[in-house]
Design a protein that fits this description.
- It is built from 17 helices and no strands.
- It has a single domain, classed as MFS general substrate transporter like domains (Growth Hormone, Chain: A).
- Helices cover about 75% and strands about 0% of the residues.
- About 50% of the residues are buried.
- It is mainly alpha-helical.
- The protein is globular, with a radius of gyration of 23 Å.
Length: about 500
């Protein structure tokens, strides 16, 4: 006999582990596509031989991001059609189909192509991938605020989203280096392309599991058959800027990605030429995630007791300490330095784990804050602008890191663009260059931690007390609207 489904007072399935697992699967699907973005810099410099041109191209495609994210977010918000399940789930379904091949479009291995053709391949591939990623990711982030209105439930969803993100990062992080790197430490471009195709297919399956098992409990406030003012993008942008929680959470996320995405590029090269073992880089980074895994199951209870803002500020301070420890470098003994590096990453990751488990719940609260202050619920625009600035940081971080790496002596050109033949031995850099890059990694992680602290401690203003008042006011407002609707 099938187990009877427990319903809440509104006739919806009660919130439980099924919801958390489904939401985790969504970010797992996103990260199956997104995880290889950290490899993009190495692919386009070491396989495609684009050198510092890649930094310029990466900045150029962010112009597309500037149009893409808010545009798609506004389209979703303005879409008042009734879907069988939910409009966010419908957009996610469509986006997940495109992501099957979208990621692979960024890794088409044609090292012998002329430079102008490589420009076209990169820009076209990135635009295709980014469009489908946004179509899936923006409504996915907005969905959190509709699954439940309870702070503890949202904290649970955010924590499990972090688990989905971690798994989506850890699997490729550990497995792919053994597949993508040749024995001499150089990158195998054709294997990167195959890996991107496989990960796109896995991401599609994860999204389908999420869509099938997601229950919407907070109805969208869409007035049907009534005159509504036209959606105003400029007004929505203004509302976002005035939304302190959204701005603070976005600055913290930008800091995290400016440091970490930039550091990802530098870290990969450091393991190639400083620690001289590119294949263990994933295992080391996996080990550094232990504090995140340990903290995640505790997130729900700790949020209930202390509050999301309060916890995340403590996490940012821990990351600052970890970033400072990364400056302890022993060039005379890279074996000792590797131990120091791992220990510093453990401290840094403890802080990152605290923040990452509540970061998405904080954005869900920021969406509610927008409704609290303006009377309008604009999930798509608020989240899409947050996503835009995150992705801007994800692009700017590696671009700036590559420029600095070039100034420090790293030659971003492993392939002769005319012959497609490897022209520089990846292990032939001077040890001085390797040490400079090791220092750069510490600088990037510290900058990331400081920006997180500024965004969370000084700008984000939804502490535990304010959050409770906001939820009470919103509940009271909706009760009045419901009574007025019944009387009408």
């Amino acid at each position: 006999m099938a187990k009877q489904i427990q319903l809440d007072e509104n006739g919806k399935r009660k919130f439980g582990m099924r919801d958390s697992l489904a939401y985790a699967a969504g970010d797992l699907g996103c990260n199956m596509s997104f995880a290889l973005k950290g490899t993009m810099a190495l692919f386009w410099t070491q396989v495609m031989g684009m050198g510092l041109w890649y930094s310029l191209l990466l900045v150029i495609v962010q112009v597309w991001d500037a149009i893409n994210d808010p545009l798609i977010g506004s389209i979703i918000d303005a879409d008042n059609r009734k879907y069988k399940r939910n409009k966010f789930l419908q957009y996610i379904w469509f986006g997940s189909i495109g992501l099957i091949v979208g990621g692979a479009c960024c890794f088409l291995p044609f090292p012998s192509a002329p430079t102008w053709a490589k420009f076209i391949i990169f820009i076209a591939g990135y635009v295709i991938w980014d469009a489908f990623y946004t179509i899936a990711n923006v409504p996915y982030g907005s969905l959190l605020s509709l699954i439940s209105k309870e702070p503890a439930d949202r904290a649970s969803l955010s924590a499990w989203r972090s688990i989905g993100s971690m798994v989506g990062n850890m699997l490729p992080m550990v497995i792919l280096p053994f597949i993508m790197y040749n024995a001499d430490g150089s990158l195998n471009g054709y294997m990167v392309f195959v890996a991107a195709l496989v990960m796109g297919a896995l991401g599609f399956l994860c999204f389908q599991f999420m869509i099938k098992n997601t229950e919407i409990r907070v109805e969208e406030t869409v007035k049907v058959n009534e005159d509504q003012p036209k959606f105003n993008v400029l007004e929505a942008l203004k509302n976002f800027v005035m939304n302190r929680p959204a701005v603070g959470a976005t600055l913290a996320a930008m800091g995290m990605f400016i440091g970490m995405q930039g550091a990802t590029t530098a870290v990969s090269v450091v393991f190639q030429i400083y620690f001289k073992n590119a294949q263990i880089s994933g295992i080391v980074q996996l080990f550094a995630m232990i504090p995140i895994v340990v903290f995640t199951p505790l997130a729900r209870k700790m949020v209930t007791k202390y509050g999301k803002k309060e916890l995340s500020v403590v996490g940012a301070l821990a990351s600052i300490v970890g970033g400072l420890l990364l400056f302890i470098i022993t060039p005379g003994s890279t074996g000792v330095d590797l131990v120091i590096y791992i220990l510093a990453q453990l401290v840094y990751s403890l802080g990152l784990g605290i923040y990452s488990t509540v970061s998405w719940a904080m954005m869900g609260d920021a969406i509610d804050y927008n409704e609290w202050k303006t009377g309008k619920r604009e999930e798509g625009v608020v989240y899409s602008l947050h996503s835009f600035f995150r992705k801007l940081a994800q692009g700017v971080g590696p671009a700036v890191a590559l420029l600095i790496m070039g100034c420090l002596g790293y030659v971003n050109n492993m392939i002769d663009p005319n012959t497609g033949v490897e022209s520089i031995d990846v292990t032939a850099y001077s040890f001085e260059v390797a040490v400079n890059l090791r220092v750069l990694v510490a600088v990037l992680f510290l900058i990331a931690a400081v920006l997180q602290f500024v965004g969370l401690a000084l700008i984000y203003n939804l502490d535990k007390k304010t959050l409770a008042k906001m939820q009470d006011d919103l509940d009271a407002r909706k009760a009045v609207e419901a009574d007025a609707s019944v009387e009408a």
